[in-house]
């Protein structure tokens, strides 16, 4: 006999954390805020550790918040359900209702850091290597927010740890949000440990390249057990999320290759001198 829905964890948590005076504060928004605050503290520590002016972080944080939200929201609307959002353009602004695509958020962060770099004169790869660390942690918190929204869930399954998302249906499903949250948390630990290693820090682009490969490889793998998110079908065996992950993985491979090659060249020149 197979497992019955009652044998699994039933998830029916209200996505609203606090409702006060007509204002709803959702778990998703609260966890997003926690991710930002923790990320800020991590970057503050990094800036102090490397003798950088921490006052620059306040302005940079504004760039990053805007870039992340705008990029993630536009990517979700245009890549996953373009028909609906082009018919209801004002709904594009309602990011608090959920619907943020990590691929777009990544592009938004890249653009925000580039615009900041042009004004501050900081090295772009220096910024990317450092900000990759809290970004991985933020990804874990955002996926927990998706759990509270009962969204980005997995396909039906009978594995013992399956969850019935009662706000969706009565089927036990893979908790894809938790898979991603755990993966991103482990990637954060790895990147943080590498950052503390001076050898990794001395290879510009290496940490960021590893971040891209690890995050989007995890995303690619988890997509196999994730319910279809795009509102349209493709003829490929890959999902929209997997297709969008490939350029990021390729970019990460190139960055690591260039970082290691640059280090080898510097070592050769140093020995020759």
Features:
single chain, 273 residues, mainly alpha, three-stranded mixed beta sheet, two-stranded antiparallel ribbon, 9 helices, 5 strands, disordered C terminus
Topology:
Layout: E1 9-11, E2 16-20, E3 23-26, H1 27-49, H2 56-80, H3 82-87, H4 102-120, H5 124-148, E4 163-165, E5 172-173, H6 176-195, H7 198-201, H8 206-222, H9 240-272
Parallel strand pairs: 1-4
Antiparallel strand pairs: 2-3, 4-5
Describe this structure in words.
The chain has 273 residues and is mainly alpha-helical. It has one domain (23-272). 63% of the residues lie in helices and 6% in strands. The chain has 9 helices and 5 strands, in the order βββαααααββαααα. It has helices at residues 27-49, 56-80, 82-87, 102-120, 124-148, 176-195, 198-201, 206-222, 240-272, and strands at 9-11, 16-20, 23-26, 163-165, 172-173. The protein has a 3-stranded mixed β-sheet, with no helix packed on it. Helix 2 (56-80) packs antiparallel against helix 4 (102-120) and helix 4 (102-120) runs antiparallel to helix 5 (124-148). It starts with 8 loop residues before the first strand and ends with a helix.
